[in-house]
Amino acid sequence: MVNICNRCIMDETAINFFLDELGHCNYCNDFFKKNKESSNQKFNSESDLQKIIQYIKKSNNKYDCVVGISGGVDSSWVLVNAVKLGLKPLAVHMDNGWNSELAQNNIENLVKNLKVDLYTYVIDWNEYREMMNAFFKSNVIDIELLYDNAMYAVNYQIAKKFKCKFILIGHNKSTEGMDIPKDWNWFKYDKKQIYDIVKKNSNIKIKSFPSLGVFDYLRFRFLHKIKQISFLDYFNFNKDNALNELEKNYGYKRYPYKHYESIFTRFYQGYLLIKKFNVDKRKLHLSSLICTNQLTRSEALHKLNKTKYGYENESDLNNDIEYFLKKMNWSHSKLDEYLNRDRVSHKDYKSDTYLYDYLTYLYKLIKRQK
Ligand SMILES: [Zn+2]
C-alpha cells in the first residue's frame, strides 16, 4: 500500500514526501503556505495587472511583447488576454517536430481569430533526434530539458530581435502551483548539461540547436532588460472557464490531459515517465487543481485510477508507441531495453545549476541589504 495524502493525491512516489498528523502532505502544505505568504504581501492582481499593462504599452514597437505558445490551454489563454487588454503581442512557437495535429490546428485558429502574427521556429529535426537519442542513452529523467531549454532560448532571442522587453508565459500558480518533486525534472537553463550529455552519449556536434545557459539568461535579463512574466497569475485563472471560451470563440479543441499538445510530451509523461521512472505527473497537476478548488479529490482519484498510463485507452497508447518508434527509428526491443535500464542522476553530468543557485543567493542577499 502506497502512502497517499488525504487532501491532495500526492504520494510517497515523490521524493521527501511526508504526512503531518492530519494526513496532509508537505506538497500541499507548502502550496497553501506559499499562497498565504503572497496574499499577505497584499498582492493585488487587478491593480498590479493594470500597472504592468501600462508599462508594456509604453513601447512604440510593432510588437510590445512576445507570447510563447505551445497550443496548450495556458499559453493560449495568455495570448487571448494579451489581445483583449490591448497589447500587441508577437506569438512565438517552437516546433520540435512532435506537434500533434490538434495542437497545430489550435495554434493556427488562435492566431487567425486574434489577428496576431505568428513566428514559428522550426528546429533541425536530424540534429534534435540525435540529441534526444543522447538523452535516452544517458538514462536521465528530464528528456524535455531539450525542448524547454530551446523554447526559452527562442523566446529570448525573438524578444531581443524585435526589441520587446516582455515575454508573457503560461506558467501559473493556479494549475502548476505545486512544487514539482526535486527528482522529477531538472534546471531548465542548463545549456552546460545539455552539451555534456550530448558530448558523452553521441558523436554529433551541436550546430543549430537554440540553447540558453545561465550567462545567456543574465545577458538577456540584465543587459537587454527582457523580463519574463507569469501572466496568468494576475488573473483569476480557471482552466475550465478558459477552455470553454477558447472552444466557443477560437475554434480550440481540448486535450485529455495537461501538456498533451506535443506527441512526445504525451508519450513521455503518459508512458515513459510512469514506466521507467515510476513518476506520474498527473498526480502533481491534478493536485494543483484540487488545491485551487477546480477539482474534488475524488474526481482527481477517479481520473488517475481510470488508467495505468496517461492514456484513455490502450489503442491510443499503442498508436503513440508505434509513432515514436517510427519517428526515432527504434525497434520494439530497443524501447524495452531503454525502459529496463536503471536511472542515472542529472548530477552525474556537468551542470550550471550550482552557479545559478549561488548567483540567486547573492542577488537575494544584495537585495535584502538595499
Ligand atoms: Zn497533499
Secondary structure: helix percent: 40-55%
Give the helix tally: 16
Radius of gyration: 21 Å
What is the overall shape? globular
Any idea of the CATH class?
Answer: Alpha Beta
How many strands in all?
A: 5
What's the average pLDDT?
Answer: 93
**Amount of beta strand:** 5-15%
Oligomer: single chain
Which cofactor or ligand species appear? zinc ion
Residue windows where pLDDT falls under 50 for at least 5 positions: none
* CATH fold node name: Rossmann fold
Run of helices and strands: HHEHEHEHHEHHHEHHHHHHH
User: Could you say how many structural domains there are in total?
Assistant: 1
Separation, N- and C-terminal Cα atoms: 51 Å
Largest sheet descriptor: 5 strands, parallel
Structural class: alpha/beta
Q: What's the CATH architecture name? A: 3-Layer(aba) Sandwich
Q: Describe the strand arrangement of the main beta sheet, using strand numbers.
A: 3-2-1-4-5
The CATH superfamily name is HUPs
